[in-house]
Design brief:
Elements lengths: L8 H5 L3 E4 L5 E3 L3 E5 L6 E2 L10 E6 L3 E6 L6 E3 L2 E2 L4 E2 L5 E4 L2 E7 L7 H4 L8 E13 L2 H7 L2 H21 L3 E5 L3 E7 L5 H17 L4 E13 L8 E3 L1 H16 L3 E4 H7 L5 E7 L10 E6 L3
Parallel strand pairs: 3-4, 15-17
Antiparallel strand pairs: 1-2, 1-11, 3-5, 5-6, 6-9, 7-8, 7-10, 10-11, 12-14, 12-15, 13-14, 15-16, 17-19, 18-19
Helix pairs in contact: 4-5
């Protein structure tokens, strides 16, 4: 895609964020904006120090944009600091890739922070949707970070994030949110698209078996409230089923399991996997105190 050179185009196509060089060359950011040396990227950087698939600016929660390094050899930098985990961008942040600098810009009316968002007068079209929710997080990330050189750690995490993100997209899902040392991904609960979540989960389990980074997979299915985004991947999600997913991650850690799914997942796609019962467990700090059945997975 060629650069966007006309400032008035921002208003015409309704985009509220863009990348800009010091020379004034601009690229609008819609949902995702991949950056790298390959012609397939939206922002193409002709620098041998820039990887073919170097980084991506990922939009989430409507007005939040994260820079995600995709395991590039020479790294991605925001305001001079190397990126390991995804970084929330602010208007005016300088992104450095190889010898090239890009400035991130966001229109003032849409650069909403957490304090002003709560007082917004904009009515968001909130809807209820059923979906599969998958939480992935690196196990013992703090200890692992301390055991690696910063550049090596950034490369490992970037490669893992990029590979998982590509895999989820190929299998019909979407990254909804990056969470420090992990991410939240979602798939619509559509019977006609059941093969998307099953094939995606099989692929993620394969990655889990081979990855140099140990990571946990937690999967739940249920109804969430969504709204504000152009796609399900950009929507703000809320609801008690989402809260349960995050409480399940705590339970998985407590049990020492790197895979945990709910009975709802077992009922829906259990025939496609060899799930094993982990029995009933009470979920800590959850509104429903009744014990629930959970499942692990038989490997090999």
């Amino acid at each position: 895609m060629t650069a966007w050179d006309d400032r008035t185009m921002q208003d015409e196509i309704g985009l509220d964020a863009w990348l800009e060089t010091d020379a004034g060359q601009r690229w609008p950011i819609d949902s995702n904006c991949p950056i790298g040396r390959s012609p397939s990227n939206r922002v193409i950087i002709p620098d041998r120090k820039v990887s073919r698939r170097h980084a991506v600016v990922h939009r989430q929660d409507v007005h939040e944009f994260f820079l995600v390094d995709l395991g590039s050899q020479n790294g991605s930098y925001v305001n001079g600091l190397r990126v390991a985990l995804p970084v929330l961008l602010k208007d005016g942040d300088r992104i450095t890739l190889g010898q090239y600098d890009l400035k991130f810009h966001q229109s003032a009316e849409n650069a909403i922070n957490n304090t002003t968002a709560a007082h917004s007068q904009t009515l968001v079209d909130v809807k209820s949707k059923k979906c599969f929710m998958l939480l992935a997080d690196i196990v013992n990330s703090t200890r692992l970070c301390e055991e690696h050189e910063p550049a090596q750690w950034a490369s490992l995490v970037g490669s893992w994030t990029g590979d998982c993100s590509d895999l989820i997209k190929r299998h019909g899902g979407a990254i909804n949110k990056f969470l420090g040392d992990g991410f939240l991904a979602i798939w619509p609960m559509d019977p006609s698209r059941k093969q998307h979540i099953t094939s995606g989960l099989h692929a993620l389990i394969d990655v889990q078996e081979e990855s140099p980074l140990p990571f946990r997979l937690v999967l739940h299915a249920g109804e969430v409230m969504t709204g504000g985004g152009r796609t399900l991947g950009e929507d703000s999600l809320s609801g008690m089923e989402l809260v349960l997913l995050f409480r399940m991650e705590r339970l998985a850690s407590k049990l020492g399991n790197t895979f945990l799914c709910s009975s709802e997942v077992h009922k829906t796609i259990g025939e496609d996997f060899t799930f094993i019962s982990l029995g009933e467990h009470q979920v800590e700090d959850y509104i429903d105190h009744e014990p629930k059945f959970f499942y692990g997975i038989r490997r090999g």
